[in-house]
Amino acid sequence: MTDPDSPAPRSAGARRGRPPSNALSRERILDAALAVLEREGPDALTLRRLGADLGSNHTAVLRYFSGKDDILLGLAERLIAEAVDGFEPGPTWRATLTGLARRVRRACLAHPALAVLVASRVSRRDAEFRGADLVIGALLEAGFGARESARYYRSLVDVTLAMSSFEAASAMLDGPEREGDRMAWQREYLMASPQRFPQLASVAPHLAQADEDDQFEFVMGLLLDAVEARSGRPV
Amino acid sequence: MTDPDSPAPRSAGARRGRPPSNALSRERILDAALAVLEREGPDALTLRRLGADLGSNHTAVLRYFSGKDDILLGLAERLIAEAVDGFEPGPTWRATLTGLARRVRRACLAHPALAVLVASRVSRRDAEFRGADLVIGALLEAGFGARESARYYRSLVDVTLAMSSFEAASAMLDGPEREGDRMAWQREYLMASPQRFPQLASVAPHLAQADEDDQFEFVMGLLLDAVEARSGRPV
DNA sequence: ACCTGAACACCGTTCAAGT
DNA sequence: ACCTGAACACCGTTCAAGT
């Protein structure tokens, strides 16, 4: 059942004067939802707010989506599509895997409020299948069998999605413009009792140094090192 | 519900004895909150529900916590404490790291509704410091310097927490009834078009086979393999 | 000192009625 | 065919008033 949604556009002849700017559609609703999320965060996304932004009654949206949750699912598909659309495999299987992981993370950080809401429930739809096909293709190319490829696929996807949404959640918590809280985080670790936590204390000054970009690259590097070591086909 | 075991009805002197059973306290409120979360999931945790369960007005709770968010933070500390309390380092540094990761995951899966709510905002408090001290101690023992230990610490903690909460989120989504949706997940992947997604199709039957326990162990194994390879001190 | 009850400003969803 | 408006059953938080 693909695409029973978009209501019939009005006939060309009826187009006199201004088109009704408030004609609803699934796409227009998703656009508005994304705009609210990006500007004001997850809590601002309510049906009433959406109706106001769209110039409609807040219940009109329910003609296009079965409920708020359905809107979230539609946004989830957009998020994963943003990561996968236009991606081309790299020169090596490892480059392909690294590149796709970076794109997923980038999409999550570009829409952190959305990532927080939907990352653990990516809808199994077209964009996700395309991503899966690319990842599994790279793993088969690396020399893994079907069973192993399935395993590594799940590991890489789980870690990438989990870390990306985790990071998005921190970004949201710190507030859109608050750099201050990250300093607080570091300060608390630096203030932990050296008597009670000697190992922690000896390392604390380094804890806040690595930035998030480096951190993600580092973890993916670790993971792919292990995958490569097991593949028997170093790139 | 009547309470036949309740203390003697209030008399003139009762006030000087033990407090009435419905006396509020932070601990009693956290107990009640945890009970609601475990029985009925994240959405059931409301101040009104908490008040009802505690036999109090729903606003009385606000005398002990500054708001609902403050209750969540209190629960977060309990979650991490459950993972860390009583843990002893293993015979090797790798065993220590594996053991602690398993405990964090187990605590998250024991309280999935809680893990979903708080995993990305673990409060930097006592239990977390104890965990950090253990992990960093193991990494120093593995031969890493302070800077490297800080890096690996963050990687291991991020992946463990992110994957555990991610998994908890899936467990919650599948609903307490379970099982049904995991089959649906598998079915959708099996039904993906083999023409459009040939690599995916060739591997799909294996995708749903690995259970979640194996999956977590597998990822931690990959990560620790890479850490061990870089340590220059195989266990 | 601790708790209650009412009030306030919100939610998502349903549904009869309008156009 | 599409949308509105009222209604329903909820939220978290504040605060004057009770005991």
Automatic annotation (TrEMBL), chains A, B:
This is TetR family transcriptional regulator. Residues 1-23 are annotated as: Disordered. It holds the Pfam family TetR_N. Residues 46-65 bind DNA. PANTHER family: HTH-TYPE TRANSCRIPTIONAL REGULATOR RUTR (PTHR30055), TRANSCRIPTIONAL REGULATORY PROTEIN (PTHR30055:SF151). The keyword Transcription regulation applies. SUPFAM superfamilies: Homeodomain-like (SSF46689), Tetracyclin repressor-like, C-terminal domain (SSF48498). GO terms for molecular function: DNA binding. The keyword Cell membrane does not apply. Residues 23-83 form the HTH tetR-type domain. It comes from the Bacteria. PROSITE patterns: HTH_TETR_2 (PS50977). Keywords: DNA-binding, Transcription, Transcription regulation. GO terms for biological process: regulation of DNA-templated transcription. It comes from Kitasatospora albolonga. InterPro entries: Homeodomain-like_sf, HTH-type_TetR-like_transc_reg, HTH_TetR, Repressor_TetR_C, Tet_transcr_reg_TetR-rel_C_sf.
